[in-house]
Amino acid sequence: MRSFDELVDEAASVSVDGWDFSWLDGRASEQRPSWGYQRLLGERLRNVQSVVDVQTGGGEVLAGVPVLPPLTVATESWPPNLEKAAALLEPRGATVVADSDEPPLPFQDNVFEMVVSRHPVTVWWDEIARVLQPGGSYLSQQVGPWSVFELVEYLLGPQPPEVRNSRHPDRAKAEAEQAGLEVVDLRFEELRTEFHDIGAVIYFLRKVIWMVPGFTVDEYLPRLRELHEELRKGPFVATTTRYLIEARKR
Hints:
The protein is of the alpha/beta class. It contains ten helices and eight strands.
């Protein structure tokens, strides 16, 4: 087996740009939601003329859709991801826009038939409602409550209920309705995630920055060493939660 130091050095130096998790192949696994977000997105986009993908990351999800609408726009705030998204999406006729991920969205009212987003960090419901055309819809797969909290609490200790439930789908539904949208579909699933080595854990926490805010290897080194020893005996198992929400503008 590779040493703790070797695994840490590798995972701490590898690029975490974009939203491609293929570096984790064979080192971690995550059960996928039954609805198949990218496939579902592709089906919906065949039937519209305009879409904006908010917080597109490196553009990987949108780039995997077979047919893009004539007006396709993606927003992103992190410069390395902007470059990756532009390289993937602009050759297909999409426009990639730098955005601060703070309201307002840089678009006029009633522009898009669809607003989409996979795993947004924050959702500005009033802005989504504003840029949607009447009858248009928002389709999003989001990280749910207490997702991978076995790992979060391994490092941070027990979290209060308001933190564990901060991404609850019921809250999203209420906020969407408050913004004037009608929620027409809401699905929630608990899924199994496994980490097989400490490098996978470090890579995941560097990439998914909201799990352990401000995570650094140095700060959590003693706890990471303990987890490394546990991983020598078998995978670290966590529960991932995901929900799909679709809301329509009246």
